[in-house]
Every structure is written in C-alpha cells, then in structure tokens.
Amino acid sequence: MSINYQKLKSMVDHYQIFDLVAYITEEVQSLQPKSLTGIVKQWLANLQTEEELYELIRFCDEALLNRLSRMLTTYGYRRFGSIRMVTLYCDDLLREGKILDADDRLSLY
Question: What's the rounded Cα separation, in Å, for the pair 79 and 40?
C-alpha cells in the first residue's frame, strides 16, 4: 500500500470528500488483516516530510476520524517537534482537558 499524498491533498483542497473516503477505504481494505495501528505505522513509514503528515492529519479531521487524527498528531509531535506539530498536539491535550500539560509544552517554545 502506498498513499499518494499529492492526490490526497488535491482531494482535500477541492472538497472531494466522497472520493477521498473511497480512496482511503480502498487503501485500508487492501490491508484488512492488519490492525489500525499496523496500518498507521505503514503509512508513517512512507512519510518523508512534515507537510505530508499535516495533509494526512487534515484529511482525518475533515473526515471526522478523531482517533486516527490524534495518533498522527502525537506521532508528528514526537518525530518533527515543529511549532505546527506542537500546536496540534496541544490542541488535542486541551480537548482532553489537560490544560496544564498543554501549557507546559507551549511554554518550551
């Protein structure tokens, strides 16, 4: 399985949500025996840049895949540590009610 991130970005930018969901569904079905974590690990292994990860997170947010979005955000925070990833990670912490944890992480930047 190999996600075409440019195709994914184009679909998100043009609000082709049904095509986007169909595309991701095909990719997931090709890996049916694996768990969600296994699928995500394989996707992450193919990521080259923070921008590709950001587009994948953006898609998950658009498609209301909150659990997957949080997993990707946590991974991005740990791998890249950029201000964008820290901000997304802290947003997740705030949604979970962990205000002090978010404040601690943001104060480091």
Answer: 14
3-state secondary structure the chain: CCCCHHHHHHHHHCCCHHHHHHHHHHHHHCCCCCCHHHHHHHHHHHCCCHHHHHHHHHHHHHCCCHHHHHHHHHHHHHHCCCHHHHHHHHHHHHHCCCHHHHHHHHHCC
- How many Cα atoms occupy the beta-carbon half-sphere of 47 within 13 Å? 20
One of 1.25.40, 3.30.70, 1.10.3470, 1.10.530 is the CATH number of 5-107, namely: 1.25.40
| pTM tops 0.70, yes or no | no
pLDDT digit string (tens) for 25-79?
A: 887 777 666 676 777 777 788 888 899 889 888 888 887 788 888 988 999 999 9
Provide the sign of the torsion angle of the four alpha carbons 92, 34, 53, 60, taken in this order: negative
Contact (Cβ atoms closer than 8 angstroms) between residue 56 and residue 5: yes
The two tokens of residue 94 are 């705030």
